[in-house]
TrEMBL record:
Keywords: Cell membrane, Membrane, Transferase, Transmembrane, Transmembrane helix. GO terms for cellular component: membrane. It holds the Pfam family UbiA. GO terms for molecular function: transferase activity, transferring alkyl or aryl (other than methyl) groups. The lineage of its organism: Bacteria, Pseudomonadati, Planctomycetota, Phycisphaerae, Sedimentisphaerales. This is Prenyltransferase. Gene3D superfamilies: UbiA prenyltransferase (1.10.357.140). Its main location: membrane. It comes from the Bacteria. It is found in: Membrane. It comes from Sedimentisphaera salicampi.
Length: 277
């Protein structure tokens, strides 16, 4: 049962996404989390639980579609009951919101709002078309405002990066979500009357433009003198991955974009630790 629960929360997504929040906090606080370490770790735990809860709920809501697209997933394969998954998701949401209380009123309210939006996304967005992918990209990018809510920024050149990277992450996530929708079109078509073939064509074209274009935004912090050579190397690698995703099958392109985002996050942290502020 433990293995099934771990598969349900998709650690390969939830852990790096929540971990990115710590990198953002490092940039927000001028390279040092002195004085906010406790709040940062609790906020990380809160976001991790909320993200895991949302993935769990998403699989519950999509179990019929996954039976077509991903029959090996936990719920379609019978590895876990729907009741157990619902209880697990509810406990994770409760744990995440409970932890957020220790991060202050503003962060607690923001975490509650994020949770509501995630629940709405999981339960109502399948028929929302373009709004679905826009909402998903916005939810991913919400890590940046959440960091500003948690702690006061320290004025350093690195802080400016946090006004640039949200644009990169939003558009990269947007293209990523479009590719996911194209990948899942077979299952979606069995439960939707929408013109999914037309959407597939439009999403593929849009993703081919958005993902490479968004990757070029990562060059701005280096050429603006905000980051240095380690970051430049990660940016170059990310751009290669993004352009490499063009023309690939959606399933492979999705993995390349995932690697791109991970590389920029890791490179940003490595550059900060290597050169300081």
């Amino acid at each position: 049962m433990t293995a099934s629960l771990l598969r349900l929360i998709r650690l390969y997504y939830s852990l790096p996404l929540a971990g990115g929040f710590i990198v953002i906090m490092m940039y927000l606080r001028g390279g040092s989390l002195a004085g906010v370490w406790g709040k940062t770790l609790i906020a990380f735990g809160s976001l991790f639980c909320i993200i895991c809860a949302a993935y769990c709920l998403n699989d519950i809501c999509d179990r019929e579609i996954d039976a077509v697209n991903k029959p090996s997933r936990v719920l379609p394969s019978g590895g876990l009951s729907i009741k157990a998954a619902l209880i697990f998701s509810g406990c994770l949401f409760a744990a995440g919101l409970g932890a957020a209380i220790f991060c202050g009123t503003d962060f607690s309210l923001a975490a509650a709002g994020l949770s509501v939006l995630l629940v709405l996304y999981d339960t109502k967005s399948k028929s929302a078309g373009i709004i679905k992918v826009l909402l998903a990209a916005g939810l991913t990018t919400s890590l940046y405002p959440l960091a500003f809510i948690l702690a006061e920024p320290v004025q350093t050149p690195r802080l400016t990066v946090l006004y640039i990277h949200p644009f990169w992450l939003f558009f990269s996530s947007l293209g990523y979500e479009m590719l996911k929708d194209v990948r899942d079109i077979e299952g979606d078509s069995k439960f939707s009357n929408a013109n999914l073939k037309s959407r597939e064509k439009n999403y593929l074209l849009a993703a081919k433009i958005i993902i490479p274009a968004a990757s070029l935004i990562t060059l701005i912090p280096y050429f603006a003198g905000l980051c240095r050579e380690v970051y430049l190397a990660s940016s170059a690698g990310a751009i290669l991955l993004a352009f490499g995703a063009v023309g690939q099958k959606p399933s492979r392109a999705i993995r390349l974009v995932y690697c791109e985002v991970f590389l920029i996050t890791a490179g940003s942290l490595a550059d900060l630790l290597t050169f300081g502020v």
